[in-house]
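Researcher: Going back to the complex we discussed earlier. I've cleaned up the inputs and rechecked each line, so this should be the final set. Can you rerun the prediction on the complete assembly and write out the structure?
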Amino acid sequence: MKDPVEILKSHNLKHTWQRVRVLEEIALDQFALSQPELEKKLGKEIDRVTLYRILNTYEDKGILHRVMDINGTANYAICSPSCKVHEHHDEHVHFNCSNCLKIYCLEVSIPKLKLPKGFKANAASLTAYGICENCNTN
Amino acid sequence: MKDPVEILKSHNLKHTWQRVRVLEEIALDQFALSQPELEKKLGKEIDRVTLYRILNTYEDKGILHRVMDINGTANYAICSPSCKVHEHHDEHVHFNCSNCLKIYCLEVSIPKLKLPKGFKANAASLTAYGICENCNTN
DNA sequence: GAATTACTGCAATACAATTGCATTTAACTA
DNA sequence: TAGTTAAATGCAATTGTATTGCAGTAATTC
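Model: Rerun complete. Updated structure for the full complex:
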């Protein structure tokens, strides 16, 4: 993973310890972290509002991507390096485990779709629901 | 569309005018209706809480399916007839217009996915984002 | 190291969803 | 069809989630 400081610099964002903490926390995990989880982990150190704002700016800048789980709560994961500021297409499949509720970013890309005449898509999200490798073996 | 009364009967649900109204309202529209829209349309007749509860039971029973839009607000549409209790097979693609915010249920089915070893999917949701046919021509 | 700009934290507010409980309504039965 | 039972509704209160304004603070620039 790239250095948090580098990431901030390359996006013209001020370097604050709060922002670094958020990046660290999210980068640590191989799966997407949900808003509540993040809040539980960082709530003592960082204000709720600040966390919201940091996550929003990160999403805007294309540093994080947001995945909605089945309940409509936001989950965040680091964008792939290929993700640039303007073209924000981390078009890979996500997997939401019904047991542990974790969200995985899979190395599977979303298939091209043939949409009806008149519909113009510029992004897509695909989430599969089921049992993950971890919960499967236990 | 099937008769609301029939639908209720076949799912062992009591026949109340509130439940019929909700079904009518959702069936009328070709697209998925959002919670706020439903509330605006039915708020004068039906209590908020009742609406929430009706939508939940409908989802449980497989009468409606719920689609989350980009903002995490719930949208509801009638399930296909093949949809059984607790196993939702409405595996079609949804389209979320960035302009009018409507959600369309497209007649396009979700492609089969090749998942990594260990992952077992039993459902999937695919939403494309862009401009719909209506907003495109205007 | 002083000035400028933008980020943070707090308080207040707005909005969304849930729960408990009393009342009403639908389905069942005699 | 009246009486009984179980379930659904509506209201009030509560909880939870997200947003906004603003004063104070911290980070970059020169």
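Model: Worth noting: The two ends of chain B are 30 Å apart (CA to CA).
Researcher: Good, that matches what I expected from the previous run.
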